[in-house]
Amino acid sequence: MSNAFLLCLAVLFGVAAIGAPIALAMIIAAVVYLLMAGQDLALAAEQILQGLYNSFILLAVPLFIVAANIMNAGTISDRLLGFCVAVVGRFRGGLGHVNVVASLIFSGMSGSAIADAAGVGKIIIEMMTRNGRYSLGFAAAITAASATIGPIIPPSIPMVLYALVSDTSVGYLFLAGILPGLLMGAVLMVMVAIIARRRQFAMDDPVPMRELPALGIRAFPALLMPVILLFGIYGGVTTPTEAAAVAAAYALLLASFFYRSLSLSSLYTVMSDSARSSAAVGLVIGGALIFNYIVASENIPNSIAALMDSLELSPLGFLLFVNVLLLVLGCVLDAATILLVVVPLFLPGCQLLGIDLVHFGVVVVVNTMIGLITPPYGILLFVINATTGAPLRDMIMEIWPFLIALLLALMTITLVPELVLWLPMQMGYAP
Fold first, then answer.
1. Do the Cβ atoms of 183 and 413 come closer than 8 Å?
2. Domain-by-domain residue ranges, the chain?
C-alpha cells in the first residue's frame, strides 16, 4: 500500500467525518491520490465517463426511482394497503402484519427501501397510530424493518449496483432475491405476532370477506406490475433496463389514466424529486468509479485474495467474516458506498474460494439493507423520523427485536445457499 493511497484513505474518512457527502469525499480523496501519484487529473473524468458509458444497466436506477415516486404520488399505495388490510388485518397485531405484507408487495414495484419507507410506510404509520392503537415508536420500527425487504425482492436498485461491480446477471440476481425476501417477511411477521401476544394488542376490526374480491379488483392492476417485470426479463422480452422503463411507464399509465390520481403538477414534482435522487446516486457511482480505479492500481483486491488464501479460511468462514464486517460498516456507511467501494475488494476472494457470486450478491445486499436500520446511522430511521416525526429514541428502543429477526434470516440465507439459488437454477442458472 503506497503512501499516496494511505493519504487518500485519510482524506476520504476525514472529509466524510466532517459531514460532507460520501460521494464528495471519494472524489476529493481520488484527486489527492492522483496528485500524490503524479498521475493526470483527467483520469478522474475519464474513469467516470468510461464507467457510465459502458454500463447500460445503470439506466435502470433512475427509472426504478421514477416508478416508485409515481406510485407514492398517486393512489396506488392506498389501494395496495386496502387490499393488505383486508387479507391480514384481521389477526392480533393486524396492522403490523399489514405493514410487512405491504412492503412485500410494494417491493415488487419500487426496488428502493427508502421509497418504501417514505411512501407506503408513512401512510401505514398514520393508520397504526390512529386512536392510539399502536405506539408511534413500534409503528415506525416495524415500518423501517419491513422496508428492508424492498431491495431484496425484484426489482432491486442495490442488486443493479452489485451487478455493475461483479459482472453478474441482473436477471438471476433478481430471481435469487425472491425466496430470501419472503423469508425476511415471514420472520418479521412471526416477531410481530410474538410482540402482539406479549403486549396484548387489541384485535382490529376485520374487513368482511365479501368485500375482499372488490378490494382485490381495485388493487389488481398494481399487483400486475411485478408479474409484468418478471415476465419481461425472464421471458426474454426485455433487458432489466428496458424492464425498468416499462415499470415507470406502467406506473405512469396507472396513476394518470386508470386511477386518475396524478395531475400535471404532481407529475412535475415526481420528476423533480426523481432527478434529485438519481443525481445523488449518480454522484456516489461516479466517486466509486474513480476510487475503484485507484484500488485496482494499488492491486488491493489481489492482495486481499492472497491474505484470505494465507489465512486458509473456508468458504463459510469467509462469508461469516464478510457478514460481520458489512454489518459493522452498515452502521456508518450507506448501502451504495458499501456495494460500489467495499464489495469489489472481496470478489477475488469469492472466486478463489469457489463462492457463487449470485449467492454472495444476495448475502451482501441483505447485509446492506440490515445496515439501513442499524443504529447509530440507520438511514431508514432518519427517513421515517423526517417524514413522520417519530422520535429516534423510541424507534431505536423498538427496533431490536426486528433486527434480531432479520439477522436470523441473514444467517439462514448465508448457511443455506440452496434457498437463494433454487429459483435461478430453475431458470437455467448453473452455479
1. yes
2. 40-426
